[in-house]
Target: Chorismate mutase
Amino acid sequence: MTTIPFSLTSFSPPPPLFSSVFLTSSPPNPIPEVLTLPSPQSPTKLQRNSMANGVTLESLRLSLIRQEDTIIFSLIERARFPTNSPTYNESYVPTPTFSCSLVHSVVKETEALQAKAGRYANPEEHPFFPDNLPPSVVPPYNFTEVLHPPAASININKDIWDMYFKKLLQLFAAPGDDGNYASTAASDLVCLQALSRRIHYGKLVAEVKFRESSEEYEPAIRAKDRDALMKLLTFESVEEAVKKRVAKKAMVFGQEVTLNNDDKKEKYKVDPSVVSRLYGDWIMPLTKLVQVEYLLRRLD
Ligand SMILES: O=C(O)C(=O)C[C@]1(C(=O)O)C=C[C@@H](O)C=C1
Model:
């Protein structure tokens, strides 16, 4: 995995991707193929540009908004279980089958199976354990290429893994142990995949921003000026709106619904302020990191 040196603290707290890019002219339509690599021949740059027509910053933002739902529901599902620390303990499984933690094995082995089913033939998807993944056994789909080819080398899942297990989990999983370790690991995987998809969506967002204002981006790219790129791609008002919206969604999705009029609206399945912080402190900064990394390779 190409891991980009990155400190989570190097970004000021400001905070949704790409399984479904929405066209502005019609109701949201999932068009995952827009990101995906072609087969058997790579299209020319010109072909890539013309094929990307219809993908706009607005349509990408609609997809990011839809992905907020996926992320919040995945957190709600994980919050059904307490911390369940044996899931993360390398010495919990006393057999040579698992030389690592349960969650590590569940993620790695699920990724191997999903790789065979073609998951990683789609450039929206990034494995957490990319080494020695088996090849896809399904017939290739002729996805349209939008991204500049060096994008394929960007994978910041190691940062996402560390953020999730070292910082985020303890903020929304209650302390305790109910023995449901396999289900806990499966829930972690769903959260990790949703977060990874969203954060790596930054590649597409960066591509569209570059196409819309290449004359602004090119000097900063040539100068390898990360700070200038970060400034160009940042929209503080959008970030503020994202943080407020995800907190509101966490309140709506996470409330107890009853048939009486005594809904306990003050108790939520995940704390809305944690969701807002997840976006402000980690998801959006990491999405911006992906954008910077993408732009730095955009003229290669
Ligand atoms: O909407 C954009 O312009 C994005 O680049 C996405 C995003 C985000 O991650 O939500 C990231 C950076 C911007 O400052 C605003 C929002």
Q: What stands out?
A: Residues 1-51 have pLDDT under 50 and may be disordered. The two ends are 20 Å apart (CA to CA). The pocket of prephenic acid is lined by residues 15-16, 61, 64, 205, 233-235, 238-239, 242, 284, 287-288 (CB under 6 Å).
